[in-house]
Structures are given as structure tokens and as C-alpha cells.
């Protein structure tokens, strides 16, 4: 069995609403230089250069210039697919698949995750690529370290997926952790382009054909707005992964975080030596002297036009603040 070419597909959509006010529509979290002087996007591309033969970036009309600026740092040509409006991950990945040869293996990664442990990461990728070459759709499972309510879960037995589960409440997440046969759903995938498209056409033909039409009419990677409106907005999980009979899961033993909340940013920064006081309070965004009195596990986020203080454990509630600002069309977004 021959090994096919591997294409790294970087998904750059999303505004990181749970990381407001750091993350904005004009500068989403994947472009912030907060991580060892690099952005998450740059780290993602660099991490996957050696294992892949080419790169496809799927972005949008609002962020493609930022992506281009970062990609110019790498000595590698790339395909840039620029969505006119977000249509979720099933369509985004379909565009990349249409831009590829049928037997190309696509390694799908979000642009805003932190991954540590290069050897363990590459080991997992090699296993996934091997399974993809056997015509499986592969997802990567992260072993839970706590009863997290912000992630979806994968119920598994060996490398077989029993079921995908929505983000649980705390009681259910605790049960998953105790049972030991549940992974966090990482949002990383690996499969042949043709295999994915065949599954998409079978499971969600409307998404398949509308995406195909939009792709065929692209102008130098830019997708047409009106044609894009015809594409149903649905995630790859709902469209394909939860319904296919050819799914495998590869355990991910590397350190991983989607940095989807200030709690996960807090944990990452503290691990990397970010200053923290005796009551485990931290400041992000300013070197101004700050004193916390009578509070513990708090995060102060400073920007030039917004200030937020929150309890670390309440990080998921930041999205409600974002939605409230969105409802009044606030310029702070």
C-alpha cells in the first residue's frame, strides 16, 4: 500500500468570543502574539511543516490578510481559500478537499490550539495517517484531566468510536472522567480528501453540492458570497463524523489545549512562568502594578479600551458578555 501525499489544512475561522476583550473580530485569538512571542496560527503552521507536503489555509474575508502576513514567514507555497461568510467546518473542509487530489491525506487542524510534546504529536499523526490510508476517517482523542464542561466527548473502545457526546453538564462530565473510556474531542481530523467528500455527499448532499458549486466558481481562492449563502452551516461532527461507519480515534498523549477560555489561558500562562501572586491571581495585557486584595484565582484582562476582572472558574461566562455587546452592535467587538 502506497503512502499518499499529506496536506495540512489550517482552519482559521472563529473570533474567540470567550477570550474577549483580548480577542476581537479585527484581531482574533489565533493572531495574538501572546505565546512565546508567536501567534497560535504561526505555531500551528510550523508544527506541521515536516509531516506535510503542502499547506491549505481556509480563512475568511476578514482575516486573510493576517494569515498571508504570517504565511510569508514560511518558505512554502500554499493554497488560500477565502470564505465570503462562515459556513462552519463541514463546508470549510469540503473546500480544501475539492482543492486536493482524491487520494491526498488531509490533516485538519484549527489554527488556535496549543500543543506541546512534538515527538508524541508526530507519533499520533503517523498513526492517523496510516489509518487514513486505509480509508478511515480519523479523529484525535485527548485524555481528560478534569470534568470539563466546555468540550465535546468521544466514547471509545480501543481505537473504535462508540459515540460522540455533546458538551456535558458537570455531573455527566464527572461520570465520563470516572468511567475512563471517554476522550475530549480535540477538533483534529485526518482522512483522504476523496473519502471525506464521499461521506459528505452521502450524509449531507446539500452541503456537498452547494460547497462544490461555490468552489468551482472561486476567483483566485475567493468564494462567491451569493453562492456561499446556499451552503447549510453545519459542523463536520454533525455532518460526517457522528454518522459514518468508518471512524477511528487515535489517543493523543501530547499536551493539548484549545485555549477556549480564560481558565485554559490562565493554566497555560502559569505553567510557562507568567507572574502570579500568593492568592493565584494574574494580570494579562499590562505590566502596570496591580494588587488584588481579598480575592483568589482571579484574572484581570487589560486592553486600551476595555478592562475585565473574572473568577477563573467563571471563564465560560465571558461569551455571555460578548453576546450582550454583540446585541447592541458595540464597537468593542
Describe this structure in words.
Strands 1, 2, 3, 4, 6, 7, 8, 9 and 10 form a 9-stranded mixed β-sheet that branches. Strands 12-13-14 form a 3-stranded mixed β-sheet, with no helix packed on it. Strands 5-11 form a two-stranded antiparallel sheet. It has helices spanning 40-47, 64-71, 88-98, 118-132, 170-179, 193-203, 205-216, 225-229, 236-241, 262-271, 318-327, and strands at 6-11, 54-60, 78-83, 105-110, 114-116, 137-142, 153-157, 160-165, 182-192, 247-252, 255-257, 282-284, 298-302, 307-311. It has 333 residues and is α/β, with parallel strands linked by helices. Helix 2 links the parallel strand 2 (54-60) and strand 3. Helix 3 crosses helix 7 (205-216).
> Could you give a short account of the major beta sheet?
9 strands, mixed
Question: What is the string of SSEs from the N terminus onward?
Answer: EHEHEHEEHEEEHEHHHHEEHEEEH
Total count of helical runs of at least 4 residues = 11
Helix content: 25-40%
Low-confidence stretches: none
List keywords for this structure.
32% helix; three-stranded mixed sheet; single chain; NTP_transferase_dom; nine-stranded mixed sheet; 23% strand; alpha/beta; 333 residues; globular
Question: How would you sum up this structure in a few lines?
Answer:
Strands 1, 2, 3, 4, 6, 7, 8, 9 and 10 form a nine-stranded mixed beta sheet that branches. A three-stranded mixed beta sheet has the order 12-13-14, with no helix packed on it.
List the helices and strands and how they pair.
Blueprint: E1 6-11, H1 40-47, E2 54-60, H2 64-71, E3 78-83, H3 88-98, E4 105-110, E5 114-116, H4 118-132, E6 137-142, E7 153-157, E8 160-165, H5 170-179, E9 182-192, H6 193-203, H7 205-216, H8 225-229, H9 236-241, E10 247-252, E11 255-257, H10 262-271, E12 282-284, E13 298-302, E14 307-311, H11 318-327
Parallel strand pairs: 1-2, 1-4, 2-3, 6-10, 12-13
Antiparallel strand pairs: 4-9, 5-11, 6-9, 7-8, 7-9, 13-14
